[in-house]
Automatic annotation (TrEMBL):
Top-rank EC class of the record's enzyme: oxidoreductase
Pfam family, one: Aldedh
Cross-referenced Gene3D superfamilies: Aldehyde Dehydrogenase, Chain A, domain 1 (3.40.605.10), Aldehyde Dehydrogenase, Chain A, domain 2 (3.40.309.10)
Organism lineage: Bacteria, Bacillati, Actinomycetota, Actinomycetes, Kitasatosporales
Keywords (A to Z) from UniProt: Oxidoreductase
Active site: residue positions: 251
Signal peptide: none
Coiled coil: none
MF GO annotations: oxidoreductase activity
Similarity annotation: Belongs to the aldehyde dehydrogenase family.
Record-given protein name: NAD-dependent succinate-semialdehyde dehydrogenase
EC number: 1.2.1.-
InterPro entries membership: Ald_DH/histidinol_DH, Ald_DH_C, Ald_DH_CS_GLU, Ald_DH_N, Aldehyde_DH_dom, Aldehyde_DH_Superfamily
Lineage top rank: taxon: Bacteria
Length: 479
């Protein structure tokens, strides 16, 4: 931990918080404090804003190829430091090292992808229908941005926002989650090493999010907010953006249905369920939350899934052979236990897990519940833990109705060997993404985002850079 920055990164310099405040970073596997980082206040936010605003004009004029090469160099540095970054991530948020190494590769790929998109920002021209004017279209950066990232994928959520902002020519302030600031600070150091000019990226770590972010959003100089987090906080931020009409991208909560039809390959369905449920210990917005399984195969699916879940090894992410690390904190674990207890009190059967273990750390065992009452709280709550709740269904219309009966619409999963059914059900789901016979949908080359209260806009893919660009139309008279 000694080489990891712990100060704020503002205007290309590492500085302490103006009032000297710090916040602790805990290891969720032990409860011990790893280190302390600077805890920014409103004064620090203003200084970061000044740096981003002052750097914007020059950065916007930087050649696309130059921006592209900075991202490409950062991509290569990240890969070269895979083990170092993976250990850092595991220390501050708990995921097993194998998963952390996977996230490093995933995070780096956003920089490679947007390094290639940086040189493909185009406009257009053409004669307007009335023949009097020619239309010239150009695209330009939206301006200084505020990027707010969550703790569950601390490196990848940073690169998924920073990559398109850099490619588009936007300056930015990054506010990472207070539980996991170290990955973001390490990323800032990497970008500085890769040649990113001073002031383009500023990282403000803080436990005082409201005091730091609200003045930025209401002040009129920040022109773009990109937020990943809960729907509840997203609503609050949208209200703060309204006064100055800040452009927003929102990647919010999920309540993903996982649908298994009677003709599904159960081996593939269970494999998919393990990925969709257990990636990042279930602490993912894409995590399968509600398992709808056709009644004719529900018992067999539950038996197989319980066997697989029960075989997973729980422990500190740095220990060899561990499959499931701790949850992020005691409050997160308590929420999961409350949801399981509520389901059991309503008649659910516990096939495996279901009880908080004794000892240090925020561990919770992989859990499978069957005969879950549809009125259970975990049916309309984002669980964010290793709990699979199984409900039986009888026909296609019924399961679509139940799957869509939620204010969220991020992702859904469908398992069937019938192509017609698979496409029909996928199109019937009110979600932004569907995994058809797969439990993994996230990819830097694909647009990530949801509908309804799961968010606004898309991240990644060819459209990811659009969130950071504006169109300008110039009318030129035809002579």
């Amino acid at each position: 931990m000694t080489d990891t920055p712990t100060q704020l990164f503002i205007g290309g310099s590492w500085v302490d918080a103006a009032d000297g405040a710090t916040l602790p970073v805990d290891d969720p596997a032990t409860g011990e404090i790893l280190c302390h980082v600077a805890d920014a206040g409103p004064k620090d936010a203003r200084v970061a804003e000044d740096a981003a605003v002052q750097a914007q004009e020059r950065w916007a004029r930087t050649a696309p190829r130059a921006r592209s090469e900075i991202l490409r160099r950062a991509y290569e540095i990240i890969l070269d430091r895979t083990d170092e970054l993976a250990h850092l991530m595991t220390a501050e948020m708990g995921k097993p090292l194998a998963e952390a190494r996977g996230e490093v590769a995933y995070a780096a790929e956003f920089f490679r992808w947007f390094s290639e998109e940086a040189v493909r920002i185009d406009g257009g021209n053409g004669l307007l229908p009335d023949g009097r004017n020619r239309m010239l279209l150009s695209r330009r950066p939206v301006g200084p941005c505020l990027l707010i990232t969550p703790w569950n994928f601390p490196l990848a959520m940073g690169t998924r926002k920073i990559g398109p902002a850099v490619a588009a020519g936007c300056t930015m302030i990054l506010k990472p989650a207070p539980q996991t600031p170290l990955s973001s600070l390490a990323l800032a150091a990497i970008l500085q090493e890769a040649g990113l000019p001073d002031g383009v990226l500023n990282v403000v770590t803080t436990s005082r999010a409201g005091e730091v972010c609200e003045p930025l959003l209401r002040g009129g100089r920040i022109r773009k907010l990109s937020f990943t987090g809960s729907t509840q906080v997203g609503r609050l931020l949208l209200a703060q953006c309204a006064d100055t009409v800040v452009r927003t991208s929102m990647e919010l909560g999920g309540n993903a249905p996982f649908i298994v039809f009677d003709d599904a390959d159960l081996d593939k369905a269970v494999d998919g369920a393990m990925v969709a449920k257990m990636r990042n210990m279930g602490e993912a917005c894409t995590a399968a939350n509600r398992f709808f399984v056709h009644r004719s195969v529900a018992d067999e699916f539950a038996r197989r899934l319980a066997a697989r879940m029960g075989a997973l090894v729980v422990g500190p992410g740095t220990r060899d052979g561990v499959d499931v690390g701790p949850l992020i904190d005691a409050a997160g674990r308590a929420k999961v236990q409350e949801l399981v207890t509520d389901a059991v009190e309503r008649g659910a059967r516990v096939l495996v897990g279901g009880r908080t273990p004794e000892g240090p750390g925020c561990f919770y065992p992989p859990t499978v519940l069957t005969d879950v009452d549809p009125g259970s709280r975990l049916m309309d709550t984002e669980i964010f833990g290793p709990v699979a709740a199984i409900l039986a269904f009888d026909d296609e219309d019924e399961v679509l109705r139940r799957a869509n009966d939620t204010p969220w619409g991020l992702v859904g999963y469908v398992f069937t060997q019938g192509l017609d059914r698979g496409l029909r059900v996928s199109e019937g789901l009110e979600v932004g993404m569907v995994g058809l016979n797969t439990g993994l949908v996230s990819n830097p080359a694909a647009p990530f985002g949801g509908v309804k209260q799961s968010g606004l806009g898309r991240e990644g893919g060819r459209v990811g850079i659009d969130e950071f660009l504006e169109y300008q139309y110039v009318a030129v008279p035809v002579r």
